[in-house]
Write a structure and sequence with these properties.
169 residues; mainly alpha; globular
Length: 169
Amino acid sequence: MARLAFPEIPDADRLAALAIRVVVGPVMAYHGYQKLNRGAGGFADSVSQLEVLGMALPRVMGYVVVAIELVGGLCLLAGLLTRIWSALLAVEMLMIPFVVKSQVGLIAPQGSGSIGFEIDLLIAACAVALVLMGPGPLSLDALLGIEGTRPARAARTARAGGTHPAPGH
């Protein structure tokens, strides 16, 4: 079987992290902003929803969700503490199908007025990918030295007989 001849892109996985960050970060930050922007009454409605769902400490969890989405989303965009915020976001998004949308299903029936949890799973998958890949080279994590170079990868490549350019070259 013939293989497709796509050119190899050096450090494509690290550039993919940037692509994920610049989409997921602002989307989540806006969701968190919306929760705060509805005012005290809107936030109270969100908290009362958490109470109805049986969430322990609903007010605290409301603030946690806003922090993960707003602060975490902005940090993902900037690539700051990426793996930590991504892990928190993945946990939040993986809880939604079980806690919030368990009665709706993966894809809500057309005309039901509900939203399924397919988008939540996509965001969770992106967050897990960032936990595994890290923020990439164009991030505050890299600039501040929070995420270093990949010596293990370079060593594996060298053992395999390939060459891998040093970061920044």
